[in-house]
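Deliverable D2.4 — example input (structure tokens):
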């Protein structure tokens, strides 16, 4: 299990959104982390990270990541660009599946998805005190509560996998489109680096990529 900051850096490094240094950019990052945790629970029955998830007005957040994004975005994005993760294959599977399912959605769309879970509403309501102030200690979302609502995540994963073999996904690097079948190859940092280096001198604007006995083929 890696630190939640490592997963945040992964999403920041590969997210194509142009509005990252904004409230919405922070919100999207938070929701992707929470959804990745749900995907991990649905796929592996273990959380992706150990940090507490808190229920805020605009959805669930991981507080230390939220504060770093809000208070030191320049340093955070610089760290993300230089980040070379050493995730396990299972971690990559969870992250890539999360991106495939939710990465193309806006911050508001992801917030709406988050608000549909009762674990958010229950913890958020618990955190509001009679004087109107928020008690963060009572805003913690329990893993058991998240486990109780995994059916919709499992349904989304099942629907995705029913169609994934018929579709190709695209990763754009330096203006070059690389088309691949989901999970073949799994886009590890090593493969993304190979694609980046290839893109710098590519003659064409689009290529297909796949693995042949563990070696990356670009054609």
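Example output (designed residues):
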């Amino acid at each position: 299990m890696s630190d939640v900051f490592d997963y945040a850096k992964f999403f920041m490094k590969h997210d194509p959104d142009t509005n990252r240094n904004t409230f919405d950019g922070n919100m999207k990052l938070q929701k992707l982390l929470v959804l990745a945790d749900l995907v991990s629970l649905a796929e592996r029955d273990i959380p992706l990270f150990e940090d507490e998830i808190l229920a805020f007005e605009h959805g669930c957040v991981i507080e230390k990541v939220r504060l770093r994004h809000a208070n030191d975005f320049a340093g955070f994005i610089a760290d993300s660009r230089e980040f070379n993760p050493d995730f396990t294959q299972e971690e990559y599977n969870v992250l890539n599946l999360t991106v495939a399912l939710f990465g193309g959605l806006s911050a508001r769309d992801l917030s709406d998805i988050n608000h549909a879970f009762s674990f958010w509403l229950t913890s958020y309501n618990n955190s509001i005190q009679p004087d109107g102030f928020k008690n963060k200690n009572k805003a913690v979302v329990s893993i058991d509560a998240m486990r109780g609502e995994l059916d919709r995540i499992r349904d989304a994963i099942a629907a995705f996998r029913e169609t994934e073999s018929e579709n190709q996904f695209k990763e754009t690097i330096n203006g070059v489109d690389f088309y691949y079948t989901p999970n073949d190859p799994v886009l590890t940092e090593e493969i993304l680096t190979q694609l980046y280096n290839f893109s710098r001198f590519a003659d064409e604007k689009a290529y297909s990529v796949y693995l042949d006995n563990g070696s990356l083929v670009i054609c």
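The chain has a mean pLDDT of 87.
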